[in-house]
Amino acid sequence: MSTLPRQSPQAYPIERIRADFPALRQQIRGKPLVYLDNAASAQKPKQVIDTLAEFYRHDFSNIHRSVHTLGERATARYEASRDTVRRFLNAAAVEEIVFVRGTTEAINLVAQSFGRSRFREGDEIVISAMEHHSNIVPWQMVCRQTGARLKVAPIDEDGALIVEEYQRLLGPRTKLVAIAHMSNALGTLNPAGELIDMAHARGIPVLLDGAQAAPHVKVDVQALDCDFYAFSGHKLYGPTGIGVLYGKRKLLEAMPPWQGGGEMIRTVTFERTEYNDLPYKFEAGTPAIAEAVGLGAAIEYIEGIGWETIAAHEHALIEYATARALEIPGLRIIGTAGEKGAILSFTLERIHPHDIGTFLDHYGIAVRAGHHCAMPVMDFFQVPATARASFGIYNTHEEVDQLMDAIREIIKVFG
Ligand code: C6P
After folding, report:
1. How far is the CA of 41 from the CAs of 38, 107, 197, 222, 395, in angstroms?
2. Coil, strand or helix: which one is 120?
3. Which domains, ranges and CATH numbers included, belong to the chain?
4. Ligand 1: which residue has its CA nearest to atom 19?
5. What is the pLDDT of residue 1?
6. What's the pLDDT score for residue 203?
7. Chain segment 188-201, per-residue pLDDT in tens
8. Using a 6 Å cutoff on CB, does residue 211 contact ligand 1?
9. Quick one: CA dihedral 351, 355, 359, 361, positive or negative?
10. Coil, strand or helix: which one is 19?
11. So what's the pLDDT on residue 321?
């Protein structure tokens, strides 16, 4: 049994936090739910659920279109949420915050607007070997459209980026770096500031895929000096269908719109269209209004707990989970980088990860099993899939114990 403390290091308000999440108060197959699939999507606190319900009950209308009271109220709340996101990322201006459907759409926006208009035959885009498909496929698509090429910075056996190799890939033809702030399949936290400095030294802009990092680390886009930052609301305890692309104003201003329609225009005739100002130029059509408001509530909720408090809690959980996992014979952890977020990806000898996932569900434990939309990572580690326990603000050391006990049971039955 591990000698690590079975508690978070400070007076973490775990009971209060858990009480805020109604979905946690249920039994699955007769067992209390242990939700460890936060990297796929997090559960929602009542503060977010209530904000959505209350918004639809009182303030809902389309936005930026109507002079009536509800139109103005809904617009004010949507724009207030944009300012909450600006503060959350410490962006310089609200014009730099574009609401999108999620990380996937944010990256596609940059690929099709920034990339398609600028990349030429022989240009290069540098990504890494640990990317999620959302940070691979949009670049492959724009490569096909423009003749640009994808360069992949390798990772080592721990799942850490080989920084020297990354640096070696940066050259006169590199037009963009697009890299995960935190890997979803491995948990690796990349040294984002260092990678950005290296790229900037050669005048190369950098996009950070923040889908996994944003719920776990304090993101400061000005301190990082990243050029683009993408994240999804649903992993951040907020609604689905809403996410954010942060872009430096100068870059966004120079980029063409990627979708045409209502709201992104100033004037339209059949001969020509004048586009709207930032950020509306990139928000064609009726956006996810209530979801944007809900995202604001989610951010306020997390900020109410505090980043340092969350980081200490999640760090304690992953340290404890890792130590306990290492005690289990036949368990292989995939992703052992020195800097890691609260993700434990693992395999068991002779037992397929899908069977692990199904078996754990019988214990009320929700994990993800599969390739995690990061097939190249699976290829690198020569596994078809992994089981992945991913932790969030409401998880406990007792839940880690339950996971480990269930894994031992699986081994007893199938191993
Ligand atoms: N990863 C997971 O279980 P969307 O689907 O657009 O909200 O996020 C896409 C995405 C992009 N980058 C990274 C690093 C991600 O982890 C994800 C989503 C989920 O790991 C669902 S595949």
Report:
1. 5, 18, 31, 27, 14
2. coil
3. 14-32+307-414 (3.90.1150.10), 49-303 (3.40.640.10)
4. 40
5. 47
6. 98
7. 999 999 999 999 99
8. yes
9. positive
10. helix
11. 98
Q: In this predicted model, what pLDDT tens digit does every residue of 3-47 receive, in sequence order?
A: 566 777 668 999 999 999 999 999 999 999 999 999 999 999 999
Residue 45 to residues 137, 242, 292, 299: CA-CA distances in angstroms?
33, 16, 15, 11
Q: Which of 373, 375, 401, 409 is catalytic?
A: 373
- Is residue 60 a contact partner of residue 287, using CB atoms and an 8 Å limit? no
CA of 132 to the centre of ligand 1 (A): 7
Please work out whether the CB of residue 390 comes within 6 Å of at least one atom of ligand 1.
Answer: no
- Tell me what the mean pLDDT of segment 232-238 comes to: 98
State which of 132, 209, 291, 386 you would mutate to test the pocket of ligand 1, scoring each by most atoms of that ligand within 8 A of its C-beta: 132
Question: pLDDT tens-digit profile of 254-287?
Answer: 999 999 999 899 999 999 999 999 999 999 999 9
- Residue 376, preceding bond cis, omega within 30 degrees? no
CA dist 340 to 94, 177, 181, 220, 385, Å? 31, 21, 11, 18, 20
Q: Where are the beta strands (DSSP E) in 235-334?
A: 243-247, 265-268, 273-275, 331-333
Across the chain, mean pLDDT equals: 96
- Average pLDDT on 120-126 reads 98
Give the contacts of 50 (CB within 8 A, at least 6 positions apart).
none
